[in-house]
Hints:
By secondary structure, the protein is of the alpha/beta class. About 25% of the residues lie in helices and about 20% in strands. It folds into 2 domains: about 1-40; about 40-370, TIM Barrel (Alpha-Beta Barrel).
Amino acid sequence: MTRAQFVAAARERGRTAHAALEAYRALFREGVVPAWCEVPDYPVTATLVEGATSKFVLRLTDAGMEGLETESVLIPMPRASGTTTTLCVSSQIGCAMGCRFCETAQMGLIKNLRADQIVHQWWSATHRVPRPTDPARTHGVKNIVFMGMGEPTDNIDEVIQAIRVLVDHDGAGVPASNISISTVGNPDGIRKIGELVREEGFHRLNLALSLNAPNDRVRTEIMPVNRAWPMARLKDALLEFPRYSQAAFCVEYVLIPGVNDSDEHCDEVCAFLREIRCSLNVIPYNPRRNSPWPAPDELSVARFMARAVANGQFTKRRGTKGRNVMAACGQLGNEKIRARRYIAEDGSAKPVSLGIPAAKPASAAQTTQTEQRP
Ligand code: SF4
């Protein structure tokens, strides 16, 4: 709940507005759960670490969702001014998009997360999750990226409600400019995000597009969603998106050897992006389990980036963190919850068909970035 929703609900239960506001602040800022509030205490069932990057799993206890697990990644970001922390959150358990390069896609969609379960990932990261390299949690969560499990536009109403809560000044207080939503490019979802961005206080919310291909043929091969939302529609949706700041869109490009990494591919991508003010984020592919492709070698990553820069495209490279613990981009997905079933709100389960809508780029979670300007 936002502060206003929380106060209204508390007043219905006989609390004063002042007491409700104090409780809301204590809950978000200090992690103190008021006795009269129902906040599930999800066990943090695992924390795996590579270097200072950690993945944590919340075991849900809600009726109908018992035992299901969210996955989130905490990524320390060294900056000149000191280390900050980026939190990569999941918007779904599993994903229906079926991107061929993605571990999560192997699960299918199991469950949409509710807004409170999305916010709970921030709350747990801020107040509960042990951080082996930062036991006092001195580096608070500064940035939030919706790049964990799931396609945010496939659960957009809950994602938007979660964002409204996360930016609330009396609660989490994360500036909209520090939040990014990454999507495979559902044009309707992009339009809904655009409506939110038009609201006061949300103008600087960031949108990232998971492109990953130079043309429709390659994109459809690795991202089945492209059949429903081909690249021309994507471009139209991006060109219509409201732009309030100088910030560029982030276009993510998972570089997969032999699939989308040739010089010709690079030229095609740059031509496609020419009309869009954007930054091209090159993400060296992190092999999923049983992957048909290896990770790209350094030389081919460097060559692709240099060519993009020569084409006049602002380009960044996303460094890989967490690959050894399956916490890197596109690697989230818990082996234990692979029953390919979607559990509906009423608790019933039904098979989910994979590969109809498509995928957002691999979770962007892990990001040391090197920029190259033309
Ligand atoms: S890359 Fe993103 S959108 Fe695609 S299957 Fe994985 S989690 Fe879903």
